[in-house]
Amino acid sequence: MEFNHLFHRCVPVITIDGPTASGKGTVAQLVAAHLGFHFLDSGALYRLAGLAAQRYHVDKDDVTALVWLIDSIHISFRKSCVQLDGVDVSTEMRHEAISKLASSIAVHAPVRVALLARQHAFRKPPGLVADGRDMGTVIFTDAVLKVFLTASVQNRAQRRYKQLIHKGFPAKIEKILYDLLERDVRDANRASAPLKPALDARLLDTSTMSISEAVNHVVVWYQQIKPYASIEKK
Ligand code: DC
Question: What's the rounded Cα separation, in Å, for the pair 170 and 154?
């Protein structure tokens, strides 16, 4: 048990936190692919919990039922296919209504605790890149590199608008901007694990940066910390 715990702690973790549509998901995924590391999209777990609550008619504030639900559902991530209780929900979980629901249930501390073990399970050799809101502050406090990604709110709204249109979802920029600000305020002001940079996080403003520039920044930072990181490349 003790050995397993120590072994687990030796697996390097890079955390990439930030607000909605800051680009952290894409950047984290590409950094993970570059280093041959595992990837955790912790927001997906909150979305799946929200989706399950909607599907099984559990109220967003019924904490006891939410925790029971989270403990009971079966989740699987395979490449770009995400399944909830055996059903592919990869598209449905990205709907704006589910984004809002995920943010609403995420305010409850017991919900966050119920998702803890599922997040820690992603920490496997050779390493992990984890993206979310509290990866560096709560979930992986011993991460070797903590990044906090930001971008202007206009920039983030534009990005989300393009993503939604690209996926064929209806979208209005004013509504996106409003929802985004509402979600930022809720995520940053909740009592439990609010969105904020860890004290030891490096800030990266991607407002005027391409995705590959942002990825490069993170990879270079990691290589500076870990000189032998390049030999971990696939
Ligand atoms: O990253 P995302 O937009 O998919 O996340 C959806 C919501 O889930 C987000 O608004 C707040 C919540 N969340 C959280 O509270 N903590 C995380 N580590 C990740 C997401």
Answer: 19
Residue whose CA is at the smallest distance from ligand 1 atom 1: 43
pLDDT beyond 50 at 195: yes
Residue 221: pLDDT above 60? yes
Residue 54 falls inside a structural domain: yes
What ligand 1 atom has the least distance to the C-alpha of 139?
Answer: 18
Report how far ligand 1's centroid is from the alpha carbon of 165 (Å): 21
Domain region containing 51: 9-228
Cα(134)–Cα(95) distance, integer angstroms? 22
Q: Using a 6 Å cutoff on CB, does residue 132 contact ligand 1? A: yes
Q: Is residue 162 part of a domain?
A: yes
CATH number, position 24: 3.40.50.300
Residue 1: its pLDDT value, please? Answer: 53
Q: Is the residue at 233 inside a domain?
A: no
Residue 196 tokens read as 């904020």
Query: What is the domain count for the chain?
Result: 1
Chain-wide mean pLDDT for the chain?
91
Q: Identify which of 42, 119, 190 to mutate to test ligand 1's pocket (most ligand atoms within 8 A of the CB).
A: 42
Q: Model's pTM, two decimal places? A: 0.91
133 close to ligand 1 (CB < 6 Angstrom): yes
